[in-house]
Amino acid sequence: MAAELGLTVRWAGSEDVAAAVGPRTAVVTLSHVDYRTAAITDLAAVTRLVHERGGLVVWDLCHSVGSIPVELDAAEADFAVGCTYKFLNAGPGAPAFLYVNARHHETFGQPITGWMGAADTFGMAAEYVPAPGIRRALSGTPPVLGMVGVREGVALLAEAGIDRVRAKAVALGRWVIALADAWLVPLGFTVASPREDDRRGGHVTLRHPDAERLSRVLIEHGVLIDFRRPDGIRIGLSPLTTGFAEVRRAMDRIRELAG
What we know:
Layout: H1 2-5, H2 17-20, E1 27-31, H3 43-52, E2 56-60, H4 72-75, E3 79-82, E4 97-100, H5 144-160, H6 162-184, E5 190-191, E6 203-207, H7 211-220, E7 226-228, E8 232-236, H8 244-258
Keywords: Antibiotic biosynthesis, Hydrolase, Pyridine nucleotide biosynthesis, Pyridoxal phosphate
Organism: Amycolatopsis bullii
Protein name: Kynureninase
């Protein structure tokens, strides 16, 4: 998009936003929860700062939605995108989602237009006229089977309640960090995720100099983690499906295989 419009992309971490944005900033896009470390960005504060400089904000919610409370309307965020296969429990192949603040509904453009987003879905008019409201974000036929997974996953989350889910995610994260300090730090691991509960999302990343090889060994022995370059081993903690005893067994197995 930047190349097509003759704009410049400037890379910056969440801590660099204040220095990076200015009166010529068009849009800032950031991950709410960092996919490597699980560090949480202050969504409301960053949104407010960017708006003060005249820009818009697009939030990536892939590692926060379904794991921590997200209040886009309250923060007056502009746009957000995310996936449903992680903490929304919809599984592989589940569709992504888009959030557009209501104040933008009648003015935002959908570049990939299709019949489902037209004002008259079955009119098959010669010219495309977008539907009013958020429906203009649709393009082609929805992936029905994938959306069934989303419906059931979101219903399960709603039944549990995001505050209870968050409380368990925090507790699971503490458990991983405590076990890592006791068992894995002496073996050359370090904790890469924030130790403060209010700054950590729903996973914990451990660093190890030989993480890439060790990750393959762990997966081969039934400990299903993610490797993140250059040296990160990410332990996912989906609260609705992960138990404390399971986490302990996994950490014990890591200790055994890395020892």
